[in-house]
Automatic annotation (TrEMBL):
Family matches, as InterPro entries: HAD-like_sf (IPR036412), HAD-SF_hydro_IIIA (IPR006549), HAD_sf (IPR023214), Heptose_bisP_phosphatase (IPR004446), Histidinol-phos (IPR006543)
Stated name of the protein: D,D-heptose 1,7-bisphosphate phosphatase
Chain positions of site Contributes to substrate recognition: R99
Site positions (Stabilizes the phosphoryl group): T50, K100
Biological source species: Orenia metallireducens
UniProt GO molecular function: metal ion binding; phosphatase activity
Superkingdom of origin organism: Bacteria
Keywords: Carbohydrate metabolism, Cytoplasm, Hydrolase, Magnesium, Metal-binding, Zinc
GO BP terms: carbohydrate metabolic process
NCBIfam families xrefs: HAD-SF-IIIA (TIGR01662), Histidinol-ppas (TIGR01656)
PANTHER family: D-GLYCERO-BETA-D-MANNO-HEPTOSE-1,7-BISPHOSPHATE 7-PHOSPHATASE (PTHR42891:SF1)
Taxonomic placement: Bacteria, Bacillati, Bacillota, Clostridia, Halanaerobiales
Catalytic site positions: D8 (nucleophile), D10 (proton donor)
């Protein structure tokens, strides 16, 4: 079984001062590529799990989102970092099992890539990210303000990756 890190997108790997509706709106944090590359080097599968309700609301299309994600992947590749897969929930008002705080996106990726969720992490900046990670059985890291349901609370992705790569107490099966 593989170990993984599930990352929320907006507010975790990129700035989210305003909506990201087209590729040029995507601005990665300065530490993002280095942090993801560190996870790659430690043989973690790295996934993005992101709520993208703007699709259902009509702010952008799935084609627009694909262009944003292709831009993201190309930008990371220039820094020798990569994302193994991206799952998104296009719903906003619909009753679905994929939109965080539900664990659907995490569980789908875990099944597809044979992930041991107990040895994996969910990193997010919203309480709903942490709730999804907890429901899936991952360790959770909250960025920004503390949330009691999270295993760890840190300032940014760089700090979260430091915790993950130094988690010597984990026993991988």
């Amino acid at each position: 079984m593989n170990k993984a890190v599930f990352l929320d997108r907006d507010g975790v790997i990129n700035r989210y001062d305003s909506p990201v509706n087209k590729p040029e709106d995507l601005e990665l944090y300065p530490w993002t590529a280095k942090a993801i590359k560190s996870l790659n080097e430690k043989e973690y599968k790295v996934f993005i799990v992101t709520n993208q309700g703007g699709i259902e609301c009509g702010y952008f299309t799935e084609t627009d989102l694909n262009e944003i994600h292709q831009h993201l992947l190309a930008t990371l590749k220039k820094e020798a970092a990569h994302i193994d897969d991206i799952e998104y929930c296009p719903h906003f008002n619909s009753d679905c099992k994929c939109r965080k705080p539900e664990a659907g996106m995490i569980l789908k990726l875990a099944k597809k890539y044979d992930i041991n969720l107990e040895n994996s992490f969910m990193v997010g900046d919203r309480n709903s990210d942490i709730e999804a990670g907890n429901k899936a059985g991952c360790r959770t890291i909250k960025l920004g303000s503390k949330y009691p349901a999270a295993d760890y609370s840190v300032e940014n992705l760089e700090d979260a990756v430091e915790i993950i790569v130094n988690a010597q107490e984990l026993i991988y099966i």
